[in-house]
Amino acid sequence: MPVNAPIQPEYRGYTVWDSPTRWFHWINALAVLGLLVTGLVILTAGQLGLSSEGKITLKETHALFGYVLALNLLWRFIWAFFGNRYARWKAILPGGRGYGAALRAYAASFLTGEPEQYVGHNPLARIGVTMLLFLLLVQTVTGLVLAGADLYWPPFGGLVADWVAAPGVDPGTLVPGTKDLIDVTAYQAMRDLRGPIVETHEIVFYLIAVGVALHLIAVVVTEIHEGGSIVSAMFTGRKILTKKPPDEV
């Protein structure tokens, strides 16, 4: 070999994302996409000229995507106690012993153009993932409340129906959009309580949209500068690295 020949990187494969984690990721991506699209149409329903019936149908579709998100998120939170090393809370949440030093080391290596390669989430990514999970949790909780307030759907729809039904009316007969079977005073009180929840839901909607965009940018930037087949790993469960990862088992 010539003396000045460049040193070829040594590629090594690592098992990282187990199948439940990969399924969560892609189901979550589809659910969030569906929620963002239907949510945007709901927010612009007035400009689009949607009828009351059309808006209710749209809200029902939006809520169905929300149920998928809620069940998927619940599953991920449970799996974070039982999954492999890289799927657990310790590898997701920022903090813990040595985290500060690891974050500084990763940031310094990234600025040099030779970033450290991690099997799981790098220290900076753990902050982003945690923020996204928190926003999705807030959106899920507020969304479930609104599904009850607007559609009388579970888990809170029964309570709302009992609250707003007019005297002598079976709460189970209430359907979205009907006003002749409700107690006007109780319904207005419910709407007043609903107001701040709607505002929170809308604000978090935009924050999630920004978070998704930043997540995609971060994946592309990390893939280019760090390597490690980040995108393909979410399909195959394996990363191909050229450096010894700090979080190697």
UniProtKB/TrEMBL annotation:
Record membrane topology: Multi-pass membrane protein
Domain Cytochrome b561 bacterial/Ni-hydrogenase as annotated: residue spans: 16-237
Domain of life of the organism encoding this protein: Bacteria
UniProt keyword terms in alphabetical order: Cell membrane, Electron transport, Heme, Iron, Membrane, Metal-binding, Transmembrane, Transmembrane helix, Transport
Name recorded for this polypeptide: Cytochrome b/b6 domain-containing protein
Lineage: Bacteria, Pseudomonadati, Pseudomonadota, Alphaproteobacteria, Hyphomicrobiales
PROSITE patterns from the UniProt entry: NI_HGENASE_CYTB_1 (PS00882)
UniProt subcellular location: Cell membrane
InterPro entries noted in UniProt: Cyt_b561_bac/Ni-Hgenase, Di-haem_cyt_TM, Hydrogenase_cytochrome, Ni-dep_Hydgase_cyt-B
